[in-house]
Amino acid sequence: MxxxxxLVLAPKDEVSGRLSTQIKTRQRVRDLAExxxxxxxxxxxxxxxxxxxxxxxxxxxxxxxxxxCGSGNFLVGILRRKxxxxxxxxxxxxxxxxxxxxxxxxxVYGVDICTDNVAEARERMLDVVREHYYGxxxxxxPTEGFIAAARTILGTNILCxxxxxxxxxxxxxxxRVGRDGTFTRVWSMLDDSxxxxxxxxxxxxxxxKADEVPVxxxxxxxxxxxxxxxxxxxxxxx
Length: 238
Ligand SMILES: C[S@@+](CC[C@H](N)C(=O)[O-])C[C@H]1O[C@@H](n2cnc3c(N)ncnc32)[C@H](O)[C@@H]1O
What we know:
Layout: E1 5-7, H1 26-32, H2 39-47, E2 63-66, H3 73-83, H4 88-91, H5 94-106, E3 108-112, H6 115-137, H7 144-157, E4 158-160, E5 171-177, E6 182-189, E7 215-216, H8 232-237
Helix pairs in contact: 2-3, 3-6, 5-7, 6-7
S-adenosylmethionine binds next to helix 3 and strand 3.
């Protein structure tokens, strides 16, 4: 993973009076320690790290990982704070506006062991993106490529995995920001610390998977695999 990842830890204890909206079933509490964090606590915790949400464009790229994200309470709180700085009034060009929002989305990662939590977290994040777009840019309609790109990013950033047992075999994408609405994707494992051993001449590490050609955001959904530069003879044949 790229550096500068902030790890958000969920508090272990909840205020008992608020538990009713914070659990799905007693069985899930027993099996998964699944007690969701209330909005108030999410916001109070995020208020402690205001410098992680700077207004400058590069602020959109500061990365967060929620390793037991549940239905996404922290993820949506983080995303809302990032999007608050991205306004049509300041940007005023649809390509740059959508790219900036996708940068914010692509910098937020979540993992949960339950598929229903992951599906819910992805939908809630997409709702936050839509709400921001319609609330901020009024009559401007999102492009088709934008919504498809947002779904694609959510599919690769909000992952169903066992963070304790499978982080070293769970693939994740780092969306590196390029010019003119592009990203260069780099694939790695959620936890690649096990592969950081000394280089072995006889068993070299494979090259990390990455795009050779940056991908415009409107093409992200259509191009899920790493892009390759065409060699001259391939280009002639194409
Ligand atoms: C206490 S809840 C917290 C949910 C969320 N962070 C919040 O604050 O609302 C713990 C979550 O961890 C998930 N979980 C439990 N074991 C896990 C594991 N090994 N890997 C990933 N997620 C796990 C559960 O499904 C549950 O959603």
